[in-house]
Amino acid sequence: MMLQKSQRNGALAFVTDSTTDVDRCFSFGPLLLGVCYGLLYVSVDHDLKRLEAFFQLSNPEVVSADRSLLLGYPYMMAITVPYASFRKRYWAVFCSSLGLAFFMFGVAPLTGIIFSKQFNIERSEVTMFRPVNPLENAS
């Protein structure tokens, strides 16, 4: 359908007859795998951040409330959690948050272009422009 519209209207969408299921798998497969992996990783990371307060409470040493119950890692911006957990020396949260930041800002944006094909789309058209003089109508 998009191919017919493209051919009828002059490249509304750049679709060709040679688009196959294999091309679609190579185009959208890595993106789909990246999104699924990201959803799994985010859920594990969120649980780890949420349960860190209880891990600190189970510590036999005396822990103050600001270092245990008042930890707000799930509610912080994802990019600031590695810094805060590094300052408090919570290494599990630090590693998990650093991995999440790497995934969010590195892996996820690149999954769509890992196996992408290079499309050579070239369209040329001659257009004539009429020169406009701004002082023409100022009389």
Give the fraction of residues assigned to helices: 40-55%
Which consecutive residue ranges, at least 5 long each, have pLDDT under 50? none
Nearest-integer average pLDDT: 77
- For the CA atoms, what is the radius of gyration? 27 Å
The counted number of beta strands is 0
C-alpha termini separation: 53 Å
Largest sheet: none
Overall form: elongated
| Tally of helical segments | 4
- Which H/E pattern describes the elements? HHHH
Helix/strand structural class: mainly alpha
What amount of the residues lies in strands? under 5%
What does this structure look like?
- It contains 4 helices and no strands.
- The chain has helices at residues 2-9, 21-57, 81-88, 91-110.
- Helix 2 packs antiparallel against helix 4 (91-110) and helix 3 runs antiparallel to helix 4 (91-110).
- The longest helix is centred in the N-terminal third of the chain and has 37 residues, at 21-57.
